[in-house]
Amino acid sequence: MTAxxxxxxxxxxxxxxxxxxxxxxxxxxxxxxxxxxxxxxxNVQYGISIDDLYENMxxxxxxxxxxxxxxxxxxxxxxxxxxxxxxxxxxxxxTAPAKVHALLAEAVKKAEAAGNTxxxxxxEEYLPYLAGIFQDLGxxxxxxxxxxxxxxxxxxxxxxRGRAMLESELAExxxxxxxxxxxxxxxxxxxxxLRHRLAEKGVMDVIIPSALLTKEGDxxxxxxxxxxxxxxxxxxYDTEIGGNEYAYLRFAGEAAxxxxxxxxxxxxxxxxxxxxxxxxxxxxxxxxxxxxxLYAFNGSPSVQMLLSxxxxxxxxxxxxxxxxxxxxxxxxxxxxxxxxxxxxxxxRMDLAAHVREKTPAVLRVLAAGDLVLTTVEGHLRTAxxxxxxxxxxxxxxxxxxxxxxxxxxxxxxxxxxLGELFLATMKAGKHWYLTTSRLxxxxxxxxxxxxxxxxxxxCDERTKALAHAxxxxxxxxxxxxxRMVGK
Length: 487
Prior knowledge:
41% of the residues lie in helices and 22% in strands. By secondary structure, it is an alpha/beta fold.
């Protein structure tokens, strides 16, 4: 529904005596009554009278409240409630990123090709898209699992043709599903338990935060080993959603000979898996490791050489000496930069926007010495901040030195041949797939105090010279224009 559609619906409901805060109750009631009443073949054939509809409305009053208008007006409420998108007026409705929608579109394709029973878990993470799932899979038996009992009850009314349950009830569930989509927020052990809910040749897709996938502990380790031993994992895609890193795991209905590792691409608005490495399932079992970096690095012979020769070590990473600067809601009058302000020579403060009034906003606040990393028209840009500023663009990542190491040193590394090799594992074609967590896990070469100071001076001197040259060139272009037009 568009904003105008929503506004018009609110006004129409109000004319029928339904205030904004009661609309969702009427939506739940209408969809539930529509299902229950038309289970009766006679109603399907002959329809239902306004009086019968009104009497059935009264029977839901204990759960959904009483509609106070007359029967004729309620018939209009019922009709309108069936026309609006079912969850638009739900209270405390969470949002869901477009990338999750793209993953769900993939899930629907898998579910369509599977048998008759399908299960979607972790549904709080994608509630705005549930109506589309029920519409696209209308011929399937759909079950939806949530954590909150309130949403279980709401979904029971809104999608009465399906089945709503709590995730805590899955252990007692006796159904076996031909397809499961799991947006996992508890841990890899919970995802592994869902394998027992699959039919004999059922398939499953799991989207899980990378930190939960690789979490330490005996329970998580046993779950990962059991999943690997089944040899049904066919693909493992490193995935960025809302600035956070996820693993997108795809499980087949039969044992697979190989496992593909790659990146999730959403550049065209739809999901596309970009494979970077394929390994025999036996090799994956022997590796006993679900850290994506291992497979990303193994997909690059040059990176393998650097690691094997101990030029860099996976044990000494950017995250050992830098921390990320997260977005936070803050009031500040600092100048704000955009991606275009990040250049090879530094951060161009002449392109910064100066906010005159202090207004709360979600920003990263940058300090002198921070390392900034972003992409501009497909090109990676790194720069060291020289004066405090702020940024609202989630695509500009910021790292702050913790001890000894400097932004200049890491800039030289990332811009040079060594760092480029590791950064390339986060790129496919023209697109970069950058996440803070993966960048913090990238190995960097250690350096003593003398080397650190020398390279910091070198970077500082050369970027200043480059900035002067860039400014002189911009002035030359401006002067040329003035002369060409006779001014």
